[in-house]
Amino acid sequence: MKKRDRHMFRLPRKYMFPCAVLGPALAGIFFSLCALSRAETIFSEDFNSYYDGIQNALQYDTGLMVSYGGSLPAWSKAGAGAIHAVNLDYVTNYAVMLFHDNVITLTAGVVANNAGTLYRVDFECGPAVYANPAQVTTSQDGVVVTVLRSDDSVLSSFSCQPGAWAGTETLTTTNFTYVGDGSGPVRFRLSPLVPNNNHFAGAVDNFSVSDVGPAPPPTIVSHPVGGSVVEGDDFTFSVVASFAATYQWFKGSEAIPAATSSIYKISNVTTNHAGSYSVVVANSVGSATSHIAVLTVTPAPVYATYKDAVLAAHPIHYYPLDEASGTVAADLGSLPTAGSYNGGIMLNQPTGVAAFPSAAMFDGQAGTYVALGATHPDGSLSVEAWVKLDPMASHSPPYFDVVSQTGPSSPAAGVLVNLGFAPGDAVEFAAVNDSGTISKAGTAGSISRGQWHHLVGLFDCVAGSITVWVDGVQGYVVSLPGVLSSIVADTVPDWTLIGASRNGTNNSFNFHGLIAQVAIYDRVLTPPEIRSHFQMATRTAPPALSIEPAVIVSWPTFPVGYSLQYATNVSGPYSDYTGHVYQEDDNFLAPLPVRGKSTYFRLYKQ
Q1: Whole-angstrom distance, CA of residue 290 vs CA of residue 240
Q2: Contact 240, 262 (CB under 8 A)
Q3: Intervals of the chain under pLDDT 70
Q4: 13-213 and 306-538 share one CATH topology?
């Protein structure tokens, strides 16, 4: 498939005029047009030097040949995945494709960083896929182009989101500009916008860098906008500026450390974040300051107990798993369906957590689970649980399922929704939509065994995505359009288990450890709700306040070289007073506890 040709155009002479005759706003808009005639290409890469000698397979949908695992001269590779390249003309016209965690970086520096010079980066970008349709580029994916100084610090970056794969390998020309700072040669890095999600970030071809000429002072095209959020939510300020080399965000008159990009995101907002924000954009020619943007923060609701907080979020099913005995797991949700304890479950196990003092212990053996028979949600879904994976837990392969949904009461098919642990003790939330597409969302790291962890899996049918939260921190967001799959009509309950998947017995990856406070919601929990639930169970109680009777000893002078001492006998022995001595007006004061005995004081010269 032939790619879209790029064309550089020149205005007819009768329409050309100096930028200086334009007003300030129009001068910024037409600056690049005025500079096109003198743009000089400094570096270019068409990726046709990619080679591995083998055309590995055909691309899904298009039938184009795709190679992977080959070499790309002048570029270094990082990440576990192999470099892929799609052959666009069945001969030598390659476009490089970034998959999962692929990062490629130009090895040698390019002399494209003179102070005050404007540089333009042009490249073609499009969605990509290899042979597996589950790995297509989604609307959330994209490629990040980073301009690196010689010390690997970031001079500039740009994100291209080409859109979801639509069945053709279509590459579209895009570009961005940056202003040199004179710090030496630069290198270019291509990386996924959303790494480690088992998707192709996109395809890139015909990469070039041009010297446009002297940079004008920066101008702000779109000012940051404030807003109002609830404590525990996230908030993002952003600015769009032309010809900016640096960004610095301020709260009031104070510069915010490390807030030096066009976007400033505040995660887990507190009331201390309320205030006025602005940003200064600059280059070597000048600077510009944005309008003030005001952030207001509403305090989060306060609940007496963890159970109150969960119920306030309106779960359709809520299993505290705090029974002292019996075979029935109570459901406190709005659509109660009592669960049944099966196999080797030990109830009323101490947790060491004040918010939920007891939990159920699962032995990890086949047949050990809680059967729920919960109804199938028609739209969005949230699954929440507290878990403590046993240090000795072992399966082959090492999966441990916490909450799983697999069809009707006699399950014969695969998992539809699953929250649990993948190999390496990484938390994973998986779901299947009505088209049979399965998506898995995880986190960058793994959990610690023998410690309590708060897990929340979310499916958002409006956004068409799934994600997972671990201990109040959000993991990766992965595309999943449509609605959740259902093996039978929604009027028939699905087979939902706590502590296992499938039928709970055969290849069911039974959980080994403690599980508590399982809740299922027919909506997406908000970040403030998730963080509130996590913090309620992990908040350290304030130290106990003790009050005891005391007397105040006062005296008019405190000569230098003297210390206050006390004893229970007038003849001693005396000890130095170690409490606080206060001065009020012309007197010195010392509070002393009443111990039930006579106490004598003296000022003693050391």
Answers
A1: 10
A2: yes
A3: 1-38, 51-55, 374-377, 407-415, 486-494, 540-546, 594-597
A4: yes
Q: CA–CA separation, 55 vs 58, rounded Å? A: 8
Query: What length is written for the chain?
Result: 606
Nearest 5 degrees, angle CA 8-CA 13-CA 16? 80
> What is the Cα–Cα distance from 531 to 309, expressed in whole angstroms?
11
Q: Which CATH number fits domain 219-298: 3.40.50.720, 3.30.365.10, 3.90.1640.10, 2.60.40.10?
A: 2.60.40.10
* Mean of all residue pLDDT scores within the chain: 86
Close Cβ partners of 497 (under 8 Å, ≥ 6 residues apart): 369, 370, 371, 372, 401, 403, 404, 405, 406, 504, 508
CB atoms inside a 10 Å sphere around CB 394:
9
Torsion of CA 386, 392, 396, 399, to 10 degrees: 10
> pLDDT tens, 167-180?
999 999 999 999 99
pTM of the model: 0.70
Q: Are 376 and 484 in contact (CB under 8 A)?
A: yes
The token pair at 455 is 């897990």
Which residue in the block uniquely carries the two structure tokens 């030990």?
346
Instruction: Return the DSSP state at 484.
Output: B
What's the fold here for domain 13-213? Jelly Rolls (2.60.120)
The residue assigned the tokens 């907080």 is: 309
Structure tokens at 564: 């206050």
Dihedral sign from CA coordinates of 341, 345, 347, 353:
negative
Residue 550's CB is within 10 A of a number of other CB atoms, namely 12
Nearest to 148 by CA among 109, 99, 91: 109
User: What are 284's two structure tokens?
Assistant: 């070597």
CATH topology for 306-538?
Jelly Rolls (2.60.120)
CA angle 503, 349, 319 (to 5 degrees): 50
Strands 293-298 and 227-230: parallel
* pLDDT tens for each residue of 462-474: 988 999 999 999 9
Residue ranges of domains in the chain:
13-213, 219-298, 306-538, 550-605
Q: Which two tokens stand for residue 505?
A: 């017995």
